[in-house]
Amino acid sequence: MSNATPDSDYPLSEVPNGARKGLFSTAILLFGFTFFTATMFAGGKIGMAFDFTTLLWAAVIGNLLLGLYAAVLGLIACRSGLNSVLMGRFCFGEVGSKLSDMLLGFTQIGWYAWGTATIAIVLVKILDLPEGLTIPLMVLFGFGFCLTAFVGYKGLDLLSRVAVPAMLVLLVALLWIATRDIGGLAGLLAVEPSESMSLSVAITLVFGTFVSGATQATNWTRFAKSGRVAVLASLFGFFIGNGLMIVAGAYGAIVYQQPDVVEVLVLQGLSMAAVVMLFLNLWTTQDNTIYNFAAAGCNLLRTGKRKTVTLVGAGIGTLLAIGGMYEMLIPFLILLGSIIPPIGGVIMADFFYGHRARYPKLADVCLPAFNWVGLGAYLIGAVSAYFSPWVAPLVGIAVAALAYVVLFELNKALAGRQQVAGA
Predict the structure, then answer these.
(1) How many domains does the structure of the chain reveal?
(2) In this predicted model, what pLDDT tens digit does every residue of 82-104 receive, in sequence order?
C-alpha cells in the first residue's frame, strides 16, 4: 500500500511505535508553529477594540476553543497514527479525499506565499534596501524556508528547539518595554478602545486565524507517544502559544497603536532584534506550513516522494508571493474560516461515531471511491459556516459533525431497507 521509506516521515501510512516522540519534542514544535506574525495582526485588531480585561477574556476563550479542537484531532491522530489527509480517505473515500487534500494543500501554500512575501517586503523596508531586491529575496526565502521541512520532522524539531527560546526572550523584552512605556499596569488599564467589535467577532477572529493550522497539526501529533502527549502538546501550542501571539499583538496595538511585532520592536529602538524576530517567527511557521502542503500533496498524488513535493510546493508558494499574495490576507482568512473547520468536524464524527474510535490499518482496508456521508456532511458544514452570522468556524465544525451523524444513520437505515427488499 505504501511506498514510504524509513526517512520519509510516513506520508502514506501510519507512524509506527518506534518513531513516536515525547512531550517536549511535540510541544515545542507546535509552539514554534503557532508563533506567527499574522496571528499578531488579529490580536492587534482586538486590542484596538477592547479594554485590556475584555481583551484577555476574548483571547482566553478563543484560544481555549482552538486548543481543544486541536487536542481532539491530536488524540485521533495519535491513536490512529494518521494525519488529517490520510484520515480523509476514511471520511471522504479514496477519490473523495482528494477534495480535502486540495483544500488543505491550498490553504497551506497560501500561508507559505504570504509569509515569503512578508519577510522580503519587511526586510527591504527595515534595512532600507533597494526595491529591486524584493523579488530576489522572495525567491531566496521561498526555497530557504523549506530546508528544514525537506529534512522532515527532525529538521522541524531542531529548528524549534533553537528558535522558540530565542523568540520567547525577545517577546518578554518587548512586553516589558511596552509596559514601561505605557506607565505600568495602571496606564495599560486606563487606555480606552478606539474602535468597536463584538465579543463573538473577536472570538471568531482568534479562533479562525489559525484553525487551518490546528486542522493539520495532526501531521505532528500523530508522532506523539501517547494520547496524553498529543493532547497536552496541542493545548500548549494552540492555547498558550497562539494565545501569546494574540496578547502580544494586542499589547502593541494598545501601547503603540501598532499590532505588528516587528514595527513595535523598531519603535522601541530594537531594529536588529526586529529582524531576528521576524526571521525566526516566520521560519518556524513556514517550514511547518510547507510540510503540511507536502503531506496533502503526497496523499493527493499517492506518492511517497515527500521531499520532491516539498520543493515543488516551495516553488508554487514563491510564485504566488511574487504574484501579490501579500495583499490577500484578510479575504484569505475569511475563506479559511468557512472551508477548513468542517473537515475537522467530519473527521471527529467519522472516527468516534462512524468507526467507534478505531480505524483499521490503511493497508488492510478497501475503501469506496466516494464516502457520500462524509462529503455531504462537509458540504452542509461549509455552507453553514460561510453564511453564519455567529462564530463561523465553530458553526462549521458543529454542523458538519452533526450532519455526519444524521447522514450516517440515514444511510444505515436505507441500506437495511435494501437488504430486506433484496431478501
Answers:
(1) 1
(2) 999 999 999 999 999 999 999 99
